[in-house]
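Appendix B, Record 12. Input sequence as logged:
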Amino acid sequence: MKNIDDLMTSAAELAERGLSKGEIADELNVSRETASWLVERSDGPQTKSTQEAAPGGPEDIHVDWNAIGRDSNRLGHVGSAMADLLSKQGEEVDLTIGIEKAGAPLATTVARELDTDLGTYAPRKHQWDDDDMDDLGGTFSRNFAQIRDRDCYVVDDTITSGTTMTETVQAIREQGGEPVACVVLVDKQGVSDIEGVPVYSLVQVIRVGNDD
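Logged structural output:
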């Protein structure tokens, strides 16, 4: 399990490699606000008080599914479970869209299980650093299957705020497609649907307690 100092170190290493704060958020499975906070504080002293309290930091939950992602066999089993959640939607859907980066390998295993074509979407947050998100746009990869007015599933690893999933659903509709259902490994918001599209998750995080 990573503590805050570990996350700061990872954020600093990713920033040094030239990743945007949006990409760092994606890599660490945290919100953009948390990624920005980690990067900005990664040059400071790393102390026990930083690990335990980290005052002023955003409230978030870090999800580390490296034990799944580094093993193709485990990834395949998880993909089968995610596909099983989607199977209740019927057999008419013939396209699975994976949200890059981490959603793409998961979508590959889901597409194989459900015998669908595979597409990928790069969300606008990958370009985000400190600029206005409204000025940025996402893209569907031309190296994979295209929407072409098709029904499709949407796959990602984590829902943190729901912004990226909402963006993807809207982008699919703008291409004439129809998102039938979404599935993720972990839902940190506890959402049942996004833009009227049902959302399924293998793990749902529920924060218990008051904020006083």
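Confidence is low (pLDDT under 50) at residues 45-54.
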